[in-house]
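One-letter codes give the sequence; backbone shape is given numerically. An example follows:

. . .
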Amino acid sequence: MLRFHKSAALRLACVAALLLISFGARASMLSPEMEDKAANFLAWFVLIAMPPGAIALFWLVHILPEKVAHKKHHPQTEAITTLCLLSLVFGGLLWPIAWLWAYTKPVGYKMAYGTDKHDDYFREHGEKLATSVGDEAVQKDIAHLKEELDQMAKVRKLSPELEAIRVQLSARSQGGAA
């Protein structure tokens, strides 16, 4: 025969008593009226707020390659932007291509045009350097930017803005060296 300890027998009696006491079984802790209100709120939220939220999230994710290309001064930013817009139209099928393109280094572009940066990079940095006070680091940046613009001028004709920046930087480097 099995011998029970007093504590085990007491526990068994408590469990049996709880099982015999019948509580009303309910699927929710809320009242039926409160359940209806919560269900209505959830339905309206799903019908009204979720579609615009999903569209906004879809759009924000699809312009990420464009933002990356702009941040990295990718020379083909406009083409990447166009691919992002086309990806929105085609349901996101072109988005991975735009993402990869934004992160690639444009080696072929550099061979063809003499640079792997967008012209805006040279405009922004050239204007900033042309007006900045010259210390040794600024002079190095001016020399580096001028060298890149000179290499680009050997390969292709520079735009009037870039040519003006090149002339400004040449005058600045000659004035700084003297």
